[in-house]
Amino acid sequence: MLISMKSGATDNDISGVMNVVQSLGLRAFVSKEDKYTVISVIGSGTKIPSNYFTSLSGVNEVVDQENVYELISKKYRKLSSGLSGNIEITVNNVVIGEDTPVIMAGPCAVESRDQLFRIAGEVKEAGAHILRGGIFKPRSSVHSFQGLGASDRSKAEEALKWLREAGDEFCMPVITEVRGESQVDLVAEYSDILQIGARNMYDQDLLVAVARTKKPVLLKRHFGAGVKEFLNFAEYIAAEGNKNIILCERGIVPVGKGNDFTRYTLDLAAVPAIRTETYLPVIVDPSHSTGRRDMIYSMSCAAVAAGAHGLMIEVHYNPEEALVDGAQAITADELKKVIKACNEISRMVNEENRALN
Ligand code: PEP
Ligand code: MN
After folding, report:
1. What region, left, alpha or beta, does residue 162 occupy, with left being phi > 0 and alpha being psi -120 to 50 degrees?
2. What's the gap in Å between 235 CA and the centre of ligand 2?
3. ∠ at Cα 192 (220, 273), nearest 5°?
4. CB proximity list for 96: less than 8 A, separation 6 or greater
5. Which numbered atom of ligand 1 lies nearest the CA of 108?
């Protein structure tokens, strides 16, 4: 339930509402950072009739869309700021959610300091904005390389330090995956953005834990999740008061013989759907969705045409020798071409895409 306060509402009015919320045993937080004050009541379910708060002093409007991702909805944005567009998330020197697509690039997995620094330098040169690199890898087989984080905590920390140093050296914020709650504090110490992988989209406890670090979170869509379900899980992060959420479409389970050709099915229609529903920026990962380097260029262009605010792309100087996901990695030279085309496409379609807001 969202309770929007009148512009002249006093602190007393706000505490009046909060007292009633608390007396009902519910959790709520007040957001004053925007133009208007909005009180978000979490978990109200069917317990309170929707007109319960309307008569309280200072209350302007009560919106109760049961079981809906209210906190990340366009309605919330309208109530809190009077605006209808998406938010921009600033991470150091990079803004995610503007017209120019933000490029997150780097190796699937950090394999060594040299490998990471070489790729970091190359992707920076190609025009990438944010450096990616997996340290705790989600893998389908226990026998494959699990990422340097798997060995022990000190190796994990050493690799995280390399990522931090590479980001600092090449002036790029860094992003890496947090695979479990026990890794949250360690990863948050070194990474600017915390990535929740597709397999963990449903892990409520992990979502709450990353949200509480107050760092920006990149949430990937589970390959079996509908768009609504995806947004419902993003709401868990927002419900901890952290709205710095970047959504990532990375492909869904293919139908029939679909994966004879691609690893997953890239659901590009999810991009405008998400942009219509929420004010959060949305990016696309053409690497994991296709599993094929020969499709990265075309799918990146298509993603930006569909309104993606950015891309996450795996890059390696020698994809054949990558320990993980070489088949879908491109070189930095190829990345440069992708970025050039995507910038041109975004200039062409920006006006149309803004209409999605
Ligand atoms: C990744 O980005 O490293 C990754 C494992 O992606 P996903 O969670 O989308 O499979
Ligand atoms: Mn990968």
Report:
1. alpha
2. 26
3. 30
4. 88, 89, 90, 102, 216, 246, 281, 283, 309, 310
5. 3
Closest ligand 1 atom, CA of 195? 2
Q: Is the Cβ–Cβ distance between 328 and 322 less than 8 Å?
A: no
Q: Are strands 174-177 and 130-132 parallel, antiparallel or unpaired?
A: parallel
Residue-wise pLDDT for 260-300, tens only, equals 999 999 999 999 999 999 999 999 999 999 999 999 999 99
- Residue 203 CA to ligand 2 center (angstroms) comes to 20
Contact status, residue 192 vs residue 217, Cβ threshold 8 Å: no
Among 144, 175, 178, 220, which residue has the most ligand 1 atoms within 8 Å of its CB, making it the best to mutate?
Answer: 220
How far apart are the two ends of the chain, measured CA to CA in Å?
22
Encode pLDDT of 98-122 as tens digits.
999 999 999 999 999 999 999 999 9
H/E stretch holding 247 reads: strand 245-249
